[in-house]
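Sample pair:
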Amino acid sequence: MSDDTPNDLTGLTKDELYARAQEHDIEGRSTMSKEELRAALSEAEAPVPQERTVDRVEDFRRLAEARAAGEFVLLPRSLTGQDRRLHVRETLREDHTTRIMSRAADAELKFEELADSLFSFFRGTALLFYRDMAGDDAWMPTVLALGDVHPENFGVMPNAHNVPIFSVNDFDEALYAPFTWDIKRGAVGFMAAAKEIAGYGHKKRRRIVRHFVKGYVAGITNFAEHGTESDDEMRLDSAPDLIVDLIEDAEESRAEWLQDDYLDDYKRGFRADDEHVPISSRREEFQEIIDRLITENDIEIPDRTAGMRVKDVCIRRGQGTASLGLDRFYVLIEGPQADGTDDVIIELKQARRSALTGLVPPTPYGLDTWGDTGAQGHRAGRIVHAQGVQLVRGDVFYGSVEIDGVSFMSRERAPFRDDIDLDDLSKKEWRRYAKICGWVLAHAHALSDELGALEHDIEPEILAAIGEVDLFVDDIVQFAEEAMDRLKKDHRTFQVDHAMGAFQQVDRIFV
């Protein structure tokens, strides 16, 4: 750090830098090194009068409301050439403002991943995707939408009894929205993955998407007829063969899982490696956080974690795609044996505003309930609500808690938490897997009127909105193909911008 660092930050200890970062409410300060704290404080304390970053959430909210009201408005998907390139650049800078300004360690890694892979670019740019859909499908039935449907957001995870089940597994973007939004996002996700991971041509990609949509229709039809959504679970004894194989492959003893992936040689705490940075000195702090998590979320502590004693804590680096650059901690809870063979890991992941915020058509099931428009301390509440609705009898450790004024969601890591290996799927298995995921998505939507905010039977409405199935399927396929064309062009312009350093800075307003 140079001698002209504001307020002589070079002479401060890490504790002093951290205290100053608290005064400025710098997000992510808990995980920053001294160098990162200095850089963030230099940014925060630099004399930049009347300067603010660009935030177009309210602008797009007005656009979405106008579109939903039937007004003729220009949506970003109509932009071409340099106008579209600037829109992509500005949207990604805005979406990553905090991470860019704080010089988050994983922020650059995320941009590298987005540049290297079309599918990763799709996964990590949900805000860009949904701004192209602002206000769309306002006449369609509303459900609690997952928000980020794609082939890798389904997987094996623990239920309330620590039994592996297959279901939707990512609720970070969940929001009440037209049911078609999840289907459209999922259709593009399967098309992008089938192109990049499987290398399939146009016809095979279309066929896979058709199976996904038809799986959804079949699922909604089933739940409309039988009303079993509150009782259904896709377990080892009830899953299709492809999912049975996945669950069986994912099974591993807890002792081996802990030893192979997490614990040090003495099984006393986390080992240090590229992915895990132990912060053992903060055990007492995280004990208090875990105690608050249990109390504030009325979590019923299972026998396998009796006492909820925090044994160790680490920072988790390099995980996820959309969430790269956001804070994530693993908390090691001592098991009954107290020998490192049955410990439990609780993940605390920083919650962010849903990519759908301000873009969905106006709905009585608004997000203000969950605080996405207000204090970010409540943001994880939206995610926890979605998990409680869409994952029947799910992970008991799902909850929300504040750390340094920042909202975090919690969940358990498990030996059998896993997702499908798309590289290993045959052509027939791709179609089968897509159909299963469509069915699972329908199950999640059907629960919107069981445990969610909806107070009327949603399945008949969805079936009526679908109408002629072949026409509905074709409409979704056509949407996916047009979105794929935009995605490929956007990815190419992003790669050029990234190579030229476009995402090392944010857009500011100077007045």
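The chain has 17 helices and twelve strands.
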